[in-house]
Amino acid sequence: MLKSNLRLKIGIFILAIFVLGGTILPFFTQEDPTAQGTYFKNLAMSQDHLLGTNSLGQDIFWYLVFSIRNSLLLGVSVSICTTIISSLVGLTAGYNGGWVDRGIMLITDSFITIPVLPILITLSTFVRGRSSFLSVWLILVAFGWAWNTRTVRAMALSVREREFINMARFSGTGMFGIISKEVFPYVYAYMVVGFINTILYAINTEAALAVIGLSNVTVPTMGSIIFWALNYNAMLTGQYPWIVAPVVATVLLFLGLFLTSTGYNELFAARRGHS
To answer: What gap in Å lies between CA 263 and CA 272, rounded to an integer?
Structure first.
């Protein structure tokens, strides 16, 4: 099935390029991406500077490489935490049902109905100028778990009434054993899709906050590189690689994540016989 899933193969191929580039290339340079004035300002593209240098005297190519690495690290780490939280909460609510389910869903739905972006902008405004990468990470985790919880809970609810679950209960298997051995195999595919989508959410949200100057723009990310390019009017001064390169990289990264997510969903549906 994987061989015929062109969407998934293209998505994985794009992501592999970004992951390998972001993790391996930094080992081939002594470049400090945060240092300013390392090179002459506004140099054109050349063999020494593949994308030229910016108005801060930084090599644009290497700044972009470190930005991709940091954005991926942020996205993956946020996604790992939110997936763990949403899995534990969603499985617990779905399996137990009753007042446990209602109580958990009340809290989950509250987080879902809260308009996230205005809250993020407000919180980021409070810590502006003294925000750290960790504070951005915490904000993204705090608001990133609710949607996946609903999905996992819905799947757990549909599985808990099946015959083999009742047989496991009557045979004396505990709640943890039933959830991990009987329910989890039915919901893990949705967790994988949710995991990929959360990476997309985290990178996208951080980039949006950084572009408007509400994230920690001293750390190279896909958003902070665009922030500095806009701040120094890269388009008006003809420094196109400074603004075009991160925008193209961001679009390709999002395309890779989207294709991987939808491709895996399609693969999982085909395995269940729904294609």
So the answer is: 14
